[in-house]
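During the reporting period, our protein records have gained a structure token line. One record among many is quoted in full directly below:
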Amino acid sequence: MPGNPFALTPEIEANPLLSDSWCRSQRYGLDPATDDFPRLHASELADRLARHSRLQTLAQPVVNELSRKVNALQSVVVLSDASGLVLQTFGDTHAMQKAQRFALAPGNLWSESGRGTNAIGTALAIDDSCEIDGRQHFLTSNQGLYCAAVPLQSPDGKIAGVLDISGPARYPHARTLAWVKGAAKQIEYLWVKQSLHPQQWLMSLHPQLEKLDGVDECLLVFTDNVLMAANRLAMREFSLNADRFGHLTFQQLFPQLRQTAVSVPLPLVAGDRNYYYRLRAPVTAGVAVTARPTLSCLSPASAKAKSCCACLTPGLGCVSKAKPAAAKSTSAVPCIGTAAGAAANSSPSTAPRCRNH
């Protein structure tokens, strides 16, 4: 670039994602030779960890499994917050160079503005999965690393952090990006499921019937009939953004559907796509009661036996009284109409290698 002290290599220029990131890094005023980076003090890091305890708890079992998978590549798994600050590092770092171990430790900031082109910072910049290999890193000190990262999205549609795999660039990493993308998808899936309130509706969809009830399904969460949360897969499938949560209704998304519980998967056409879906009603759904017409009492054939049917709650039936009580009137007691079955599921009130995560 004219007037720029750092020329882009042919490899960088040929890749739009990399060239854009390198240009941003230059605009930030970063020097590729720098090796001086700020790091949070222990007390500040403790505060940051406390604020992101939910994310760490959800990610822990998935990340532990992922770190075992990449151990043969002498790589580690890194969990950062939405600013690119490293919260936790999982795996064996002893095979790495001392500088690399230090740089990937908790408390280090890996934003693009702080460290130039790198998987964590660039994934945040483009809001998509990304891998940066060796000399593709902007800073010389990071060019011995291979990194693959995916942003993590909370159920409210906002970026909550980044999941990253980092290791020596000398190892082959043919499947590393796929591994980290799969792990991120699992974390986001569990987050939606575990954040679900008993009074909310949960809709799951997928074009393939066999993919329902798995991490590949789209999840939509409604409070009454208003969309409140979704996983990333659903947001991309239906072109949603977080600003529409709290405003978009079930009827606007699926005008041809009635919002009633569906436990057995049913076909659905939405736009130009075919899906199978389930719809789980709130556990504490309100009960709508439909009254039946009042029942008539039958008069006994014998005049001696004056009785009447008191139609009670369903299941108790009618009780015949052989002898009326000494009351103010000896006329038959009128029969009481019963309520129809509760509609438990009644409709609620209207009250370059960086793609396709």
Observations:
- The first helix runs from residue 10 to 13.
